[in-house]
Amino acid sequence: MTNTFLNYKAATLFLLSIFPWIQKTLCIICFCEKHCSENQSSGSCEVKSGGHCFVAVKNIWEPEKGEYIQQWTSGCLSSKKIGCIAADIQGTGTWTQMLLITDYHENGSLFEYLQAKILDKTALLKICLSMAAGIAYLHTEIFGTPGKPALAHRDIKSKNILIKRNGECAIADFGLAVRFSSKSGTIDAVSDIRVGTRRYMAPEVLDQTLDVTSFNAFKMADVYSMGLVLWEACRRCTTDFRTSVVDFYSLPYQDVVPSNPSFEDMKLVVCVKRLRPPMPTRWESDTVLYSLRQTILECWHQVPGVRLTALRVKKTLSKLYINNLNNTIDDKNIIV
Description:
single chain; alpha+beta; Phosphorylase Kinase, domain 1; Transferase(Phosphotransferase), domain 1; three-stranded antiparallel sheet; 11 strands; about 35% helix; about 15% strand; nucleotide-binding
């Protein structure tokens, strides 16, 4: 990878020539802190700048140029603070590399985080609330300057949610996102309904009944996937702050489908049998987890129109978060 991953100083000078507004901390990218991981089409690495700021760099090859453009435009439109920089940089010979540079989150993905950590109520609600807030923001069209179209992610899963240093979530990987603008009334063309991660696909995606002319249909599919991620996080939360008894980490449907399930595997479980991941009985005796249980049930409902919107989930979790903080303070005062 060393010979092909560019001279970073030259790359930075090129970036500055076309993006003069790049933050000063990214002006001189000095070296790769770690070797880039590489698969068939893309890789990522951590880069340290002259200002001691770590960033994440996704390296996308020519065959995935469409995904690169989609991730860049979706990401930059999603937030004014996302810190998303991209450029086509000519390498050696005819080789062309596209870089997607974003904030680096050292805690990794929620998938990794949940396997290593036990959550208390505050940490759990911070994860759930920030995830719901992020998805609600994506789903919302913003008018004015700068505005943004509404976005549906289409691949919500714990591996595509990053954990920031403060414990909040950041939604990642917009390669499959679709955009909707009410001004033009158009949705990005969708060549295939069944894209994303099969384990997290909504029933209407698995049985291909999703209405591709309705942007709301794409949003409801995101909400179903979000419900599964909420379930993953809740399993790792204690029911009593005095103990550390939790459920082991599990992927959704881990007990009923193979590690790499086919479309037919998932369709049988989700659409035909209408199964959902089991809710631990211990949640029923806990106020926070029981409330989250009710929210999850409404997120992954079989009928898309019955599901909650991401905004409704955000508002519900916001109230739950505030109430939990107040109760935590009261409990500490009682102990003292």
